[in-house]
Amino acid sequence: MSNRKGNVSVEWTEWHKEPNTAGLEQAGAIQDFAGAEAAYKQLINQGSILSMVNLARWYELRPKDDGGADFEQAEIWYQRAIEAGSAVATLPVGYFYLRRKDYEKARSVFLIGKERGYAPSILRLGDLYAKGLGVQQNYDTAQDLFKRAAKMGNIWAKQTVAVLNMRRSKNVVEKILGSIMIGLSNLEFKYQNWREPRSEKLKK
Q1: Which residue in 134, 67, 59, 78 sits closest to 102, CA to CA?
Q2: Residues of the chain predicted below pLDDT 70
Q3: Domains, the chain, ranges and CATH?
Q4: How many CA atoms lie within 13 A of 17 on its CB side?
Q5: Which of 15, 17, 78, 140 has the fewest CB atoms nearer than 10 Å to its CB?
């Protein structure tokens, strides 16, 4: 995991705060809803925050054979993960609200991610400002957020900054530099995907 706050990845930090990482991995391999629900609730009772996120995702995406999606329970567990202090949770929770087209709640969640120093959520917050979803459209604010996420190592943010610079600049040299930056970020993406495919540098 790679988006680093200081010298430590945000995701690495949260993973190593988990009380039972082996149990969390085992729960993630469970295929049926009832089994996963029981495993995650047991881990939650032990203090696992990431299990709240995973349980919420199960409720959101629960198969019809198991009763179908339960958005109310999904939101409850997503919000509990946020309230417990997780930065990593802000990305899936924000996406939960985006899928519900509740852009204001999505913005508020991504803003929490920004405050907690999580680059993928900062990138998504910038996207909301760029598109004017849940907030007044503001390209300057969007670009500032993209740049912040890029400085934290997020590859998608680096590409976004490069594309925006190319589009907004009339300077040929700057356009060439932007093109080079995109090429370098593509190479970085391939390397990172090979080295750490689950890295937060690759998340958007």
Answers
A1: 134
A2: 1-8, 168-176, 178, 193, 197
A3: 4-202 (1.25.40.10)
A4: 18
A5: 140
CB 90 within 8 A of CB 116: yes
Paired tokens of 108: 């508020």
**Rounded CA separation 36/182 (Å):** 41
d(CA 124, CA 118): 10
Distances (CA, A) of 115 to 112, 119, 165, 189: 5, 10, 26, 26
One DSSP character per residue, the chain reads ---EETTEEHHHHHHTT-S-HHHHHHHHT--SHHHHHHHHHHHHHTT-SHHHHHHHHHHHT--GGGT---HHHHHHHHHHHHHTT-STTHHHHHHHHHHTT-HHHHHHHHHHHHHTT-HHHHHHHHHHHHHTSSS---HHHHHHHHHHHHHTT-HHHHHHHHHHHHHH---HHHHHHHHHHHHHHHHHHHHHHHH-TT-GGG--
pLDDT digits (tens, 9 = 90+) for 114-127: 999 999 999 999 99
pLDDT, tens digit, for every residue of 117-172? 999 999 999 999 999 999 999 999 999 999 999 999 998 899 888 777 777 666 66
Q: How far is the C-alpha of 155 from the C-alpha of 165, rounded, in Å?
A: 15
Question: Could you identify the residue written with the tokens 């998608």?
Answer: 156
